[in-house]
Known about the structure:
Layout: E1 16-23, H1 28-43, E2 49-56, E3 68-69, H2 70-78, H3 82-98, E4 110-111, H4 115-126, H5 130-143, H6 151-160, H7 165-172, H8 178-190, E5 198-201, E6 205-208, H9 213-226
Helix pairs in contact: 1-9, 4-5, 5-6, 6-7
Amino acid sequence: MANPMTQAAANNDARSLRIDFVSDVSCPWCAVGLLSLEQALKRLDGEVHAELHFQPFELNPQMPAGGQDIGEHLRQKYGASPEQFAANQENIRQRGAALGFTFDMGKRSRIYNTFDAHRLLHWAGLEGRQSELKHAFLRAYFSDGADVGDRETLVRLAGEVGLPVERARAILASDEFAAETRAQERFFLQNGINAVPAVIINERHLISGGQPVEVFERALRQLAAAD
C-alpha cells in the first residue's frame, strides 16, 4: 500500500486541497474538529474544493473487548480529578452543541477498542462511503453511547449508511484490511502525529486540535491561496 501522504493527485488549481483527517472514533475533540472543519468548508464553498480522507489513529490500541469505565480510564491515563473530568465534559458538550452535535455524557460511560471501526472505515473509503460511516460511528458513540468495539454494532451502522451488511460482517470476521490499517497508523506515528485530531493539508501543513470554525476557515483560505 502506498503511503496516503504521497498520493495527492497532481492538481494545478491552487484552490483544490487534499485534507487528511487523522483521528479516532472515541476522541471527542476529533468529533468537534471534524464538525468545525466541515462547517468551515461550507463557508468556503466556491473558493476551496477539498478532498477529505479519514486516516486511522488509536488512542487506546491495547483496550480490551468491553472497554473501560471512562472516568477510571482518564484518571489512570491523565491523572484527571473528578472536577477536571466534569469540567472537560461540559466544555466538550458545549462545543458540540454550538456545532449542532449532541454529546450525551450520561450515555457515554465507557472507552472502547476502535481497531475494527478503523478497518471498516478503510473499506468504506474504497466504497465511497467513508464520510457517512465516520459520522455514523461518532453519533453512535458520543450521542447514543453505543459500543463501537462491538462487531454487530459496527455491522448495523455500516448498513445504515448504505454499505452491504454481509460484506461488513465478513470483513470483521477476518483480518481483511488489518494490515492496511496498521500501516497507515504507523505511517502517521512515524511522521510525528501523536495527538489527534491532526488535520494535514496537501501533505505538508498541519492544523492540530479541535479548532473553532473560524480558525479552520482562515487557515484553509490562506493555504488555498498559497499552495
